[in-house]
Amino acid sequence: MKKIEYSNIKTEGERINYLLDKMTLFDDDLMSRVFDKNIQATQLILRIILQKDIKVISAKGQEEFKNPIVGGRNIRLDVHAIDENGHEIDIEVQCNSEGANVRRARFHSSVTDSRMLKEKQKFKELKDSYVIFIYKHDKFRKGLPVYHVDRYIGETGQLFGDGSHIIYVNGSYKGNDDIGRLMNDFNQPDSENIYYRELAEGVRHYKETEGGRIEMCDLVKEYAEEKAAEAEKRGILRMIFTYVQEGILSEEKGAKDADMSQSEFIKAMTAAGYKLPEGTKK
Q1: Is residue 61 domain-shared with residue 135, that is, in the same domain?
Q2: C-alpha distances in angstroms, 55 versus 38, 44, 182?
């Protein structure tokens, strides 16, 4: 069978269908919809990752948590689950290192915690929280299937036990065990090659049924348009950097055209590998 290259596809409809066919559970648009209100699928992966008999009572895809600080940054959870004990669980899929940054995990954990207690509730009523990153690569490069992050007392090595848990799952792990099979499933674009039935049925719905595929095609179209706009913006920014480097534009004019402060512009320009004209203060 001849391999189809994306660059050779001519029509928008063909491009959208091509992108959808290639999507896996590592694409958050597909993943969040497969798990949205899907108690069985959410419960399955949490039991595998957490290694305990957890009972999920709620699962929502793409749920936004508002920052309690005015002007503070909000977060959008790929999947927000709650178990029967009231434990809050944030499941994120990430393909790049920035998305799986350890400080992002800290921020997600803190925003999740900030929503749990109502006025005058006691701190001991705060439920456990879990932030789980299913990262496409091995975040800590030790070859382990799962990395558990908890707080410990530095002087004694004793577990602090505050109920806050951060977990990284190694998406490149290929062991012959439950995690290995789960990560194989997350990397599969075809439902027929997915081991766990709960996941296969969800992927099949959004890729192979008429209603599910129409919904996903609309999302893929929005995604493709956003990426095209981002690429265009990056291209314009590179052109501005080049003009400033060659002295065609001043740093001040370049920053204005890029809609940045002058200090932000200079920092972005040097970080991108462009040279500043002589006499520019970094």
Answers
A1: yes
A2: 13, 9, 19
